[in-house]
Amino acid sequence: MLERVFLLLCFLPVLAAETCKPNTPNGHKVRLSIKTALGAEAYDWNENERFLFQSTMAYAMRNLKGENFTVSNIVVCDETPRVSFWFVVTSPNDPSKVVSKGEVEEAVRKSRNRINQAFMLSDSTLEFIGILPTLAAPVEPPTPTWLIVFGVVMGMVLAGIVILLALSFVQKKRKKNKKADVEEEEDDEGTQVQTAENGATRVDYYNNSFADDERFTHM
Amino acid sequence: MKLLLPNPELDLRIPSYADLERMEKETKDGPQWDNKAQYILTCVGFCIGLGNVWRFPYLCQSHGGGAFLIPYLILLVLEGMPLLLLEFAIGQRLRKGSVGVWRAISPYLTGVGIASMLVSFLVGLYYNTLIGWILWYLFNSFQEPLPWTQCPLNDSKTEFVSECQRSSTVDYYFYRVSLNSTTSIADSGGIHPPIVVCLLAAWTVVAICCIRGISTSGKAVYVTAILPYIVLAIFLIRGLTLKGAVNGIKFLFIPDVKELMKPTTWLDAGAQVFYAFGLAWGGLISFSSYNPVHNNCVQDAVILSVVTGLTSVYAATVTYSIIGFRATEKYDTCISDNILTLTNTFDLPEMNITSNNYEAALSSLNTSYPDVLPGLGIQTCDLQSLLSEGVEGTGLAFIVFTEAITKMPGSPVWSVLFFVMLLCLGLSTLFGNIEGVVVPLKDLKLVPKNFPQEALTGLTCVVSFIISLLFAQRSGIHWVTLFDNFAGSVPLLTIGLFEMIAVVYIYGIDRFNEDIAFMVGRKPCIFWQVTWRFISPLTVLVILVFYLVTQAQETLTYLVWDASSEMFPALTSVTYPSWIYAVIFLLAGVPSLAVPVYALCRLIFVCCRKHLF
């Protein structure tokens, strides 16, 4: 009995070493860009940070499957100065069995936010190669803003048009009444020539020489 | 060489000096300017339009930078100023709009006025469509984040829509969201509702500003003519504080003197001067006819020329400072992307490669791993090519500038300011346009005499709106380009030529000199005499002939944004279908031919009448 346990314990690290290597079928590559994300407050990648990663992944696996994943089930290897590494997840019941890629992906997706926050990083600075983050939907206000602005502008313009037309109508009426009063007082012959030359009050907006035109143009 | 064609009964058709003095003393019923400033501002607003912001800077940069200013300024003085004074003086003397003036000089010349009216109408149609697009962007600028910073997600929500992914958010927003453009002018694609709404807004704004002629538009120009200068100043200050602005200004103004040897440079400069001054549209003649008789039009012409020239240079500086900023941003992004790719591929520590040692690192990696590098997709980042990207016309305003604005902090404010400026520039040009359409309609007696001014303006705007629904189709952008290239080029040059011939050789240059002496107090000096008689008509004729020759030789093409083409995201060049030539003839040929055709018809009519009696 003791011998079997001893043998198993010896095999474990070997097994682990065999399952985790670059481009292993059930493994994932992780890449961290700490300096890009945090600048001056960047922390160094060391054993403690690796431990944090392992525990966060164990948490994610527990969240998904409910089994008692521990830190030793998350095997990390091939660390580079970039800060990138490969990891595989072994099953807690049978350390020789590796959890499938699909399940690991699902676990990461489910707890992505918590994993990011543990390292103070984001989807783009803590990358799981092969697991695409769900993109944020474009921000859209409930009523399209442009319709509101359009409504305001059109309202003002139409109100302006109505006011201008009303004003001009009132002005014309006043002028007509004034001219009618003036005509009654003055000499008939003189004013007839005057008004014939200047036309009706609506000529106000025509070019003055337009009236003279009639005398001169032959067509 | 005082050639003068016989022109009987001219004195009966035009007011004499005594008549003018009398009209001056009487209380005037017609429209008139409240003050001189209003007149100058209206003319400045008419001349300074969208072309000054998006055509001149492009011409400047593509024809040798600072060196382009030399042909531009020379032709401004030799071609633009004389024609300008000609239009001002003839309008002020004969006190009529464009049709009235030419009909007074000779009834056979009424065709010139009709041609001006047609050109003003056609140009007004597509110009207001541009205003509609500007309004669309303006309405959409009142939100944070701006809608052209985001791509929509595709159905599976894992990626952006492929068209947007492959090009850029601003391209996608302009060509797909705003216009939903089709890939060919023949493919109409149906009406695109947002553009209809914006066209409606554009035409109602124009209607309210022009509804009572210059009594309303004259008030509106205080805003529309002055605001662009203020906004340009704000953008200049903001632009100069951005990183990379100086690159843009250097790119613009570094002279390449070899370009001066090419005839196309001079031709483009001449054409630009012509269009920049709003000559031959009829609006300037109309505006001058409302002036007091003794207004100093010579001074006005010189002032306006100087202002237009300076504004073109000013706008070009601002534009290129912003373009320089955008190009530098893109260059930095390109370098950072490459650095990231290299760092990830070779698993180097972060910050090992920076923009300073990028070149050195790239070459050392290339020597160590020569077969890995080509497969990585490292882009070549070239600042010069980024500076010359898509910087003309609508591409400048709606793509390049909007992109630059998204990178400035507080982008909605800048966006609103920018589009309000473009709106003002376009509106003030349209006031002159509407004037050039409405006044001839009255002069030609096409409307009953007692028809109120408001109703005529309103009717013009309604009819124009309905016709401009052509541009609200999904293929609208191609129609706008077509109109831009053909409705406003050949006809204007032809009309300008006829105007000069009419005044100098049919009205009589001697009589014209005396008129100016009467109005201003001094005969125009030798400079004006030489330019009016020989230099300006010759320049316009040369430009016209060269233009016709070059156009006839090329197959006509236009650019489309086609996601299925290999050139995507760059625009693809497509040839026009054959029926387009009929449309081009309508746009360019009909106004140009209106002059001789009308003269011929009238000749036949008069001869027939004589024979019948």
Automatic annotation (TrEMBL), chain A:
Its main location: membrane. It is found in: Cell membrane. GO terms for cellular component: extracellular exosome; plasma membrane. The chain crosses the membrane at residues 146-170. Residues 24-219 form the Collectrin-like domain. InterPro entries: Collectrin, Collectrin_dom. Keywords: Cell membrane, Glycoprotein, Membrane, Phosphoprotein, Signal, Transmembrane, Transmembrane helix. It is a single-pass type I membrane protein. Residues 177-206 are annotated as: Disordered. One of its GO terms (biological process) is positive regulation of amino acid transport. Residues 1-16 form the signal peptide. Coiled coil: none annotated. This is Collectrin, amino acid transport regulator. It comes from Oryzias melastigma.
